[in-house]
Amino acid sequence: MCRLASRSFFSRDAASLARDLLGTTLVRTLPSGERLAGMIVETEAYVGVRDRASHAFGGRRTARNESMYAKPGTLYIYFTYGIHHCANIVCGKMGEPVAVLLRALRPTEGHGSMATNRGWGVGAAERQHELCRGPGNLCRALAIDRSLDGADLVPGRGGASGSVSVEIPRRSPIEPGMVLNGPRIGLGNAGTWKDRPLRFWVRDSETVSGRRTAETRRPGAV
Fold first, then answer.
1. Calpha distance 191→171 (Å, rounded)
2. Does the structure show a pLDDT above 50 at 219?
3. Average predicted confidence (pLDDT) for the chain
4. DSSP assignment of 168-193, as one string?
5. Nearest in space to 131 (alpha carbons), one of 146, 143, 149, 148
6. Structurally, how many domains does the chain consist of?
7. Looking at beta carbons, which pairs linking 148-151 to residues 24 or more positions away fall under 8 Å?
8. Rg of the chain over CA atoms, in angstroms?
9. What is the pLDDT of residues 90-124, one digit of tens each?
10. Whose CB has fewer CB within 10 Å in the chain, the N or C terminal residue?
């Protein structure tokens, strides 16, 4: 049994949300009603205006990153390198530009459609662990693009159509000892922020996109 994530689930600091998203399920419901879903196994926290790796560093606010300033539970989707979309979940408080980047999922529903979205041919079943490995592949597999920027993950009054949601299992499949965290991946000129332990992932998961070994640190330590 699962429940849909509420506004209060997202209304917290980015590091603790990044940790607690592990083991939840990201669901993309297509216009046809088909569900594409996967368990979140890797995330990165971006902690706002002081974070040199964040799009909101120094209070930057543009049309591109406006969704970062929206209410917690909002999707922030950006396009990068001219080829990839990346999906982030806004958290914190309204007007506070903090968010969690979704880096990898373990697919659980809609494998065939995900493979088609990735442009894979018949016979790619043995590569299913690669379907949603990495933020760009995740978005491509789940048909997530800029059209979903600003969508509300929280159902009900004031919420969006429910085309993307987060489901929380009654009991998390991720035990505390299975969670590792360490530096984020692929950062450019972020100074000392590139070494902050703000990436979280499930130990031994073959769907994790980057380095799979690190010290286990207290969630939220920066």
1. 38
2. no
3. 90
4. EESS-S--GGGEEEE--SS--S-GGG
5. 143
6. 1
7. 148/75, 148/77, 148/87, 149/67, 149/75, 149/76, 149/77, 149/78, 150/66, 150/67, 150/70, 150/74, 150/75, 150/76, 151/74, 151/75
8. 16
9. 999 999 999 999 999 999 999 999 999 999 976 66
10. N
Please indicate, yes or no, if residue 150 is contained in any of the structural domains: yes
Contact by Cβ (8 Å): 97, 49: yes
CATH code for position 125: 3.10.300.10
Compute the distance between CA of residue 188 and CA of residue 173 in angstroms, rounded to an integer: 34
- Residue pair 74/90 in contact (Cβ under 8 Å)? The answer is yes
Q: Where are the beta strands (DSSP E) in the chain?
A: 2-4, 25-29, 35-46, 75-80, 84-90, 99-109, 164-169, 179-182, 199-202
> What local confidence, expressed as pLDDT, does residue 188 receive?
77
Spatial contact of 51 and 36, defined as CB atoms under 8 Å apart: no
Task: Report yes or no on 45 lying in a domain.
Answer: yes
The domain in which residue 16 lies consists of 2-202
For residue 219, tell me if it sits in a domain: no
* pLDDT at residue 191, as a whole number: 82
Tokens of 200: 């979280």
Position 211: which residue type? R
- For 20-49, how does the pLDDT look when each residue is reduced to its tens digit (9 = 90+)? 999 999 999 999 999 999 999 999 999 999
Over residues 128-146, the mean pLDDT reads 96
Assess if residue 40 is contained within a domain. Answer: yes
CA separation, residue 178 to residues 10, 18, 105, 196, 200 (Å): 22, 14, 15, 20, 10
